[in-house]
Design goal:
The protein folds into 2 domains: 161 residues, 3-Layer(aba) Sandwich (Rossmann fold); 142 residues, Rossmann fold. Helix content is 47%, strand content 17%. It is built from 13 helices and 10 strands. The strands form 2 sheets. The protein has a 5-stranded parallel β-sheet, with helices on both faces. It has a 5-stranded parallel β-sheet with strand order 7-6-8-9-10. Helix 6 links the parallel strand 3 and strand 4. The two termini are 25 Å apart. The relative contact order is 0.14. The structure holds 2-deoxy-2-amino glucitol-6-phosphate (AGP). The site of 2-deoxy-2-amino glucitol-6-phosphate (AGP) has 15 residues, from helix 4.
Length: 325
């Protein structure tokens, strides 16, 4: 897992370089569609949530839904040109395949985003976007998720017709490289994490909070919950206790102090990720850069927590890389 996290800058760079021109047919489909579903399972669902934020911010009607909840009941009355963008690292998981088939039966266009060029998803989709994470041996997806997120960044750039993608990629990959170089610092914080964790993040950092929770569940088996930051204070905070660590991607805004006050009153401890005074620093407050940098902090924390507990994060029990049933 650690080696694969280290390969992320290269995998992101390759994915963006290879797709820079070939992404245009997907951009056209997005612009021409009246409604877009974005689907996936597990880590791939978390990537779908990130793309959903991206499309909505660009004024495009879309909804992220887990592959398993994408059903005839939900889609059958939708009229117009509907698109289903399916994220699947393997391109072979059964929930992704059944939602591809259901989409086609209903006359929807399907775009597959996958890391496997010879998969069912890449063959059967109307359009396929490949990611270039290379082989991923650890069951816990890390670099294959980072490249999924980089596709949302690319879509965002194309929809906004922004210049300067190369510079943005350099900044993001440089930031990730720096975090990995300082991973000893991250390891110290991993040592402070208790047996229950709450992850908080807002906007594009909410899917990162979801992914942080999933990574810890898979690798160290600790109990985790993830929330959009302010949503946490509408009930769940009632359960916060001294056995819980809160890992919070901060906004760097004034209300943060109020939030910190509330968390400190009940949590065992807190670890903040963000700019300025945060415990674990990210290089920028900009959307994708902050999200990707925070994601790497989360992945490293999960890796170090598991190894610190004497567990093998690459082979969690009861989990397989691809759910084929
Ligand atoms: C994440 O660590 C897992 N590999 C899992 O959540 C995975 O993303 C999910 O099972 C979906 O698989 P897929 O992306 O290959 O379709």
């Amino acid at each position: 897992m650690f080696d694969e996290i280290r390969e992320e800058p290269e995998a992101i760079r390759k994915t963006l370089n290879k797709n820079m021109d070939s992404i245009q047919p997907l951009i056209n489909e997005i612009k021409e569609s009246s409604f877009i579903f974005i689907t996936g399972s597990g880590t791939s669902y978390n990537a779908a949530v990130m793309l959903n934020y991206t499309l909505l911010e660009n004024g495009i009607r879309s909804m992220a839904i887990t592959s398993s909840e994408y059903s005839e009941n939900i889609i059958r009355k939708l009229k117009g040109k509907v698109l289903n963008i399916i994220f699947s690292q393997s391109g072979e998981s059964s929930d992704a395949i059944s939602n591809l088939e259901l989409s086609k039966e209903n006359g929807f266009k399907v775009v597959g985003i996958t890391n496997e060029k010879d998969s069912y998803l890449s063959r059967e989709s109307d359009l396929c976007v490949l990611t270039y994470a290379g082989e991923e041996r650890s069951v816990a997806a890390t670099k294959s998720h980072a490249v999924q997120i980089s596709i949302s960044l690319l879509i965002d750039f194309c929809l906004k017709e922004n210049p300067g993608l190369e510079k943005k990629v350099d900044d993001i990959c440089g930031g990730i490289g720096q975090i990995i170089k300082n991973s000893g610092e991250v390891q110290k914080y991993a040592g402070k994490i208790l047996q229950k964790i709450v992850f908080l993040g807002a906007g594009k950092c909410y899917p990162v909070a979801l992914e942080g929770g999933l990574k810890f569940k898979e690798t160290s088996g600790v109990s985790t919950e993830s929330y959009p930051t302010r949503e946490y204070f509408h009930g769940p905070v009632h359960r916060l206790d001294r056995e819980t660590t809160v890992i919070w991607i901060t906004d760097g805004t004034v209300p943060d102090m109020k939030i910190m006050e509330k968390l400190s009153a009940s949590a065992g401890n807190t670890i903040t990720i963000g700019n300025g005074n945060a415990d674990l620093k990210v290089a920028s407050s900009d959307g994708f850069q902050k999200a990707l940098n925070s994601l790497v902090h989360m992945q490293l924390l999960a890796n170090f927590k598991a190894t610190g507990m004497g567990l093998d994060p690459d082979h969690p029990s009861n989990l397989s890389k691809v759910v084929r049933w």
